[in-house]
Amino acid sequence: MSTNESPRVQSLWKQWLENNDQSAANELIDHYMYLVSFHVERISSNLPGNVSKDDLKSFGMMGLFDALTKFQHDRELKFDTYASFRIRGAIIDGLRKEDWLPRSIREKTKKVEVTSQELEQLYQREPTSDEIAEKLQITAKK
Q: Do 70 and 83 reside in the same domain of the chain?
């Protein structure tokens, strides 16, 4: 807890820490939800469109709750900073668990996508699989 927090937030922290008050915990989660939204937006901007922001938000919420339960108030750290690390880590961990493709295949897929976009710009049309394969020096399977 930071002394920069409003008296209301400070009171919620006190209720949570001293009494393990779940309603105070819920209000604190609501209060710090902006951190989850921030990290979901930042991370999702680098992901394909088929990755659900709702999934990222769920992972982030787990990170926020984890931060709330594990935060050590006596260490003079700002909760926002600590929670941001936990939220971002939970989102990335969640994405890794959901990803069923091995990293090597994911990298090859990315190379094909980038090459396809480059050739589309060059030819002003969608490139064929043979053109992509030739550029990458791989075999196009039919």
A: yes
pLDDT digits (tens, 9 = 90+) for 4-29: 788 999 999 999 999 999 999 999 99
Is residue 1 in some structural domain? no
| 65 in the same domain as 109 | no
**pTM for the model:** 0.69
Cα–Cα separations (whole angstroms), residue 73 to 8, 28, 36, 79:
17, 14, 20, 8
Interacting residues of 90 by C-beta distance below 8 A, sequence separation 6+: 59, 60, 62, 63, 64, 66
Contacts of 1 (CB under 8 A, 6+ apart): 9, 10, 13, 73, 79
